[in-house]
Amino acid sequence: MNPVAIRLLNQQLATPQFGSPAEVVSHMGAVQAQEYRMMRWAVAMRTRKPSSGAFKAAFDSGRIIRLHLMRGTWQLVTAEDYWPLIDLCAPKAIAVIRGWMSSNRITIPEEEITAIRDILARTAADKGSVTKEDFVQALAERDIHMDAHRLSYHIRMAELSGTLCSGDLLPMKATYALTANKVEPRNAIDRDEALMRFASKYFQSRQPATLEDFVWWSGLNIGDCRKAIALLGNRIHTVKWRGREFYLTDDCRTRGFRKGKYLLIPPYDEYLIGYKSRDIVLPAEHTHRAHNNSGIFQPIIAHDGIICGNWTPFKADCQVQFFDGDHSAELQTEWEIYKKFLVSSS
Predict the structure, then answer these.
(1) pLDDT digits (tens, 9 = 90+) for 219-245
(2) Residue 149: count of CB within 10 angstroms of its CB
(3) Based on CB atoms within 10 Å of each CB, which residue in 33, 101, 105, 304 is the most buried?
(4) Interacting residues of 296 by C-beta distance below 8 A, sequence separation 6+
(5) Which residues neighbour 287 within 8 Å (Cβ) at sequence distance 6 or greater?
(6) Local structure of residue 94 (DSSP, 8 states)
(7) What is the set of domains in the chain, with CATH numbers?
(8) CB-CB contact of 250 with 237 (8 Å)
(9) How confident is the model over 108-145, as pLDDT tens digits?
C-alpha cells in the first residue's frame, strides 16, 4: 500500500474527478473552513478547473453552507447534508462549546440563549445577509450590549440549532443568513443512517485512515465511530501498514497518481486536519512548520504528497520557504493556477 498516493487520489488532490465545488464538498462530507478566504481554494483546488466564481455561485445559492459544526469549528457542508449533520453533530459540538464557556467563566442561561437567538433570527430575516456588526446594532437598538466573545457563543448556538447559517460570500467578512431562507427543509433520517453516511463520506475521501483519525475529525465519541464503521459492513476493510490498522473502502481510488507534482495547500486543509496520523505525509521534524500545539495551521507545500515547505497566499509573487533545498522553479505551474483562480474572483 502507498498511503500517500491513495490519500492524494481520494482527497481529489491528484487527478480530481469533480467539476463543481458542491460535488467536492459532498464527496468530502465536510471541509474545514477556518480561514474565510482560503476555504475557497481548499475546495477549488480539488476541482478539475479551479474557479473562484464557481465557488461563490455555489456558496451564495446555498448549495454550499458554512457553519460551526464538528469540534465547534467552521466547516463547509452541502445543503443536502446540512440537516443530517446538524442532528448528528450538534449535541457534541454544543457540549464542547459549553466546556469552552466554562473554562472562560462565562455562563449563559437558556432563557438568554432563546431570547438572543430570536433577535439574531429576526435580523437575518429582515436583511437577508448580515454581518456580525449588524447583529451588534440590532442588539444595541434593544439596549442589549455584550462583548464579542459572548456574542460569538450566541451565534454558534444559533448555528447549531439550525437557525442561522452562512449568508452571501463577501471578499473578507463572513455573513449570516436565516437557514429557513437558505436550506430547504428535509425529512429526518434515522440516526444509524446518518452515522453510516457520515462514515462513508469520511473514509471515501480520506482513506487510508484509522479509527483514531475518524474520531478526531468527526468530534463524535469512539462508540459512535465504531458503530458507524460497523454499519458500513462489507463496503470497508482493514489493511495493516507499519503496525497500524487503516480502513479502505472497496471502491478506493488507487490509479492516477503521477510523481513530480507540487501542491500549494491552504492552512487548515483536510490533507492534514482530517487526520491524527499526519506523520504519513508530514515528517516529524517539520511538524512545527505546518501547525502548532494550539491548533494553528499554516499554508504548506507538498511534493508528491509529502509536506516540504510553506508558502504565502495573496502575494504578487510566489513566496516560498522549503524545509530542505530549493524547489521554487518547479512550483511555477501551480502558482500560475492559483493566480488564475484569484483573478477569477475579481
Answers:
(1) 999 999 999 999 999 999 999 999 999
(2) 11
(3) 33
(4) 267
(5) 278
(6) H
(7) 3-181 (no CATH), 191-249 (1.10.10.10), 262-343 (no CATH)
(8) yes
(9) 999 999 999 999 999 999 999 999 999 999 999 999 99
Helices (H), ranges, the chain: 3-10, 21-28, 38-44, 52-61, 79-103, 110-127, 132-140, 148-160, 191-206, 211-218, 222-231, 270-273, 287-290, 332-343
One DSSP character per residue, 240-276 reads EETTEEEEEETT---S---TT-EEEEPTT-HHHHT-S
Q: Which residues of 268-291 are buried (b: 16+ CB within 10 A; e: fewer)?
A: bbbbbbbbebbebbbeeebeebbb
- The set of cell numbers assigned to 121 is 433570527
- 101: closest CA among 148, 153, 146? 153
Residues 182-211 pLDDT 10s:
999 887 889 999 999 999 999 999 999 999
Residues in CB range of 25: below 8 A, 6 or more apart: 31, 43, 64, 76, 77, 78
Task: State the Cα–Cα distance between residues 282 and 68, nearest whole angstrom.
Answer: 27
CA-closest candidate to residue 157, choices 194, 187, 124, 112: 112
